[in-house]
Amino acid sequence: MDDMDKLKTTLTEQGQRARAAAAAMARASTAAKNQALRALAQHLARAQSALLEANARDVQRAQAAGADAAFIDRLSLDPERIAKLIAGLDQVAALPDPIGQIDHVRPQPSGIRVGQMRVPLGVIAIIYESRPGVTIDAAALTLKSGNATLLRGGSEAIESNRLLAGCLGQALNDAGL
Fold this sequence. Notes:
Elements: H1 3-27, H2 30-46, H3 48-64, H4 69-75, H5 79-94, E1 102-107, E2 113-117, E3 123-127, H6 132-144, E4 148-152, H7 158-174
Parallel strand pairs: 3-4
Antiparallel strand pairs: 1-2
């Protein structure tokens, strides 16, 4: 099996797992989603030292590869940025659950009322550059909206993103998701 076949197999398997997860996420209660978001905030706070170390390795590799200062800034995490990620998770948890909201209700000539109901999309794939914060922001928003997510950050942030994904997995487990 060549590299392209391996990649295709891996992506197919990930897509199938995400599709199965999407069904569970669509049924998740507001309380469970908020519990997962708050658990993620706690896991990030506990993993801060390890995250800073992983991110420092990512930054060192990017600098050695000749990345410019603006790129290094976007790639970098520090305690203040991690605190902002944690605060953002608490803010998303505090938002009303969008699922099930009905908007734009209009009466029809037949007497029935028709509106638009918000429902999860299913699986959302997000490909983004090497900004580790996007991993958490994207995961938080898709989780709150009841969707499964395939996240693909830039390879320069691989160590940071692996650690962040581990925290996310633990948080989802903590919430029974």
